[in-house]
């Protein structure tokens, strides 16, 4: 983990409207502080600049780690993850009954590796939907 100035963290959070830029849950009431993710990890040459940072819930940040992408099942082609700086969320994902579905290969690999649809996360998302917070 690298040092990110408090002012830069705040800019990232504001830009994201205080929601995880990957799974879209709000940080309000989550109980654990959200983190700032290097979309392109430092070890892959990523910089600590606004255009390479994403506001991120602890789950998404943990599952993503320093990865840049993955392969779909039974495939060998590397597919990059959804990039909140260059991609539009609605173009890559849809939500049905609390479950996030990938609409594109980028969406599909992101859903899988980030474990968007673990039972706990779907349950939490459904609660947010019921309370009109998602
Ligand atoms: Zn998330």
TrEMBL record:
CDD domains, sorted: HNHc (cd00085)
Keywords carried by this UniProt record: Endonuclease, Hydrolase, Nuclease
Keyword ATP-binding: no
InterPro entries, A to Z: HNH, HNH_nuc
Gene Ontology molecular functions: endonuclease activity; nucleic acid binding; zinc ion binding
Keyword match Hydrolase: yes
SMART domains recorded: HNHc
HNH nuclease domain boundaries: 7-62
Record-given protein name: HNH endonuclease
Organism: Haliscomenobacter hydrossis (strain ATCC 27775 / DSM 1100 / LMG 10767 / O)
């Amino acid at each position: 983990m690298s040092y990110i100035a408090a002012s830069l963290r705040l800019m990232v959070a504001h830009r994201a409207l205080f929601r995880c830029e990957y799974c879209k849950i709000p940080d309000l009431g989550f109980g654990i502080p959200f983190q700032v993710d290097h979309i392109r990890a430092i070890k892959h040459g990523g910089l600590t600049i606004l255009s390479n940072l994403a506001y991120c819930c602890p789950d998404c940040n943990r599952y993503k780690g320093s990865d840049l992408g993955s392969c779909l099942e039974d495939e060998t082609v590397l597919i990059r993850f959804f990039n909140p700086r260059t991609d539009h969320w609605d173009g890559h994902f849809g939500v049905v009954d609390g479950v996030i579905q990938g609409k594109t290969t980028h969406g599909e690999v992101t859903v899988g590796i980030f474990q968007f649809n673990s039972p706990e996360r779907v349950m939490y998302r459904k609660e947010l939907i019921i309370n009109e917070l998602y």
